[in-house]
Amino acid sequence: MISTLDVAVVGAGPAGLAAAVAAAEAGLTVAVIDLNLQVGGQYWRHRDEAGSEPTIGLHDVTTYAKLRRRFDEARDHSGLQYLPNSQVWFIETRSVENGVPEFVLRLTGFSDVGPQPVQDQVVARRLILCPGGYDRQLPIPGWDLPGVMAAGGVQAMLKGYGTRTGTRAIVAGTGPFLLPVATGLAEGGVEVVGVCEAGAISSWIPQTRGAAQVPAKAREAAEYAFSLAKRRIGYWTRTAIVSINGTDEVRSVTVAKLDRQGRIRPGTSREVLVDLVALGWGFTPSLELVTAVGADTRVDVDGSLVAVVDDAQQTTTPGVYAAGEVTGVGGAALAVTEGELAGRAVARAAAGVEDPRRRRQLQGRISRARAFARAMHRAHPVPAQWSDWLTESTTVCRCEEVSYGDLCYARDELGAGDARTVKLLSRPGMGWCQGRVCGFATAQLTGAVDAEALRPVAKRPLCAPIALGELAALADAERLAR
């Protein structure tokens, strides 16, 4: 018989760690589910703890060390359960006595070599969803060549394995995340020829009020700027990679200056020889679990679909809380704060444990950090005319090999006016990744960027890939329960 826990926390990154610790220290029974072997998420991804090799590019180690110590103490003394290498693929909501719901989380194994047997379910009275996000990508000619990676993927290989995925690299896209990726590559021994930032530094001028809410971010940016300058790495603003060149692998990229709308300025294109391209256009929150429990979503400033939460981090589904990037991309410090607030809110709801002063402190920090995040997104938007860089043969959906020409035909000739209809007619988002890579671009290319248009792109009835045997086992269990 599986016991019912007070709360299940999904995700062991900055938000999940903070939430789990806050709930466990309040005396609640807690299970933490994460697809990685080691806690920390992408931000605190690190080398094997049993090894002696240092981790490249690890940030804010002090905060991680404190949270990790409290997390380990909770595992040893408070009964906190950690379920690594596990993914939630389905959430069932069922009512118990007095109509109070409880949540059944169906789990599947996850490791570097594929699914592995794990505990197959967790039952909890409340959920804290901290699934994080993943790199947002825009298609450009040649982006499907070997040697092209998401910026976050490049960083993950460096942090987790110390692996250099190239010898001569260029980092491109928009947003502050390009800076730690470039410096991390350089620290790892890779020659970084430059950083192509599609935006302009002057775009921050109208956002000074929001930027001033978190002064530490300015200091962090200055440190990265100094690091780039010291290594003589170019930082080219209003510049983008408009094509990636090669036959069986990356040989070079074509970079060009952009106007304010993102159109290529004539006569500015030039070729740069590289064997590694790291692309990053911000992040997309992982919303599978949010939509699985029926919680409301909205479109954030950066065009991402995010979970709607109240001032205690509770979603519109009673008993379900969310923290971190899933409520809006804002960085690790904000995620930690939201996670702690969510953990404390659950403790208040479940056991009446509350510290009003600390709650107000956390809410104030969140308000300031959200103001900074809005400023950041407005200063680093996706270029409005990025589709001008595409050719008819440019692949948009890599899983199903759908080209830009295919999408244009569905949109212009067949009358598809939204991402869902385009998906039905030309199949983008119907492959292995289920639209995680191409969903944002498909929505942009169909001109549909409101919540109603984006929601079908984010909704996935099965939240993770599973074996057919696991699905069959669930059906067998339901028959036995009857």
Walkthrough of the structure:
Helices cover 34% and strands 22% of the residues. The mean pLDDT is 90. Helix 1 packs across helix 2, helix 1 runs parallel beside helix 8 and helix 4 packs across helix 6. It has three domains: 202 residues, FAD/NAD(P)-binding domain (3-Layer(bba) Sandwich), CATH 3.50.50.60; 143 residues, FAD/NAD(P)-binding domain (3-Layer(bba) Sandwich), CATH 3.50.50; 60 residues, Orthogonal Bundle (Arc Repressor Mutant, subunit A), CATH 1.10.10. It contains 14 helices and 21 strands. The chain is α/β, with parallel strands linked by helices and 482 residues long. Strands 1, 2, 3, 4, 5, 6 and 19 form a seven-stranded mixed beta sheet that branches.
Key traits:
482 residues, alpha/beta, FAD/NAD(P)-binding domain, Arc Repressor Mutant, subunit A, 3 domains, seven-stranded mixed sheet, five-stranded parallel sheet, 14 helices, 21 strands, globular, oxidoreductase, Opine_Oxase_asu/HCN_bsu, FAD/NAD-binding_dom
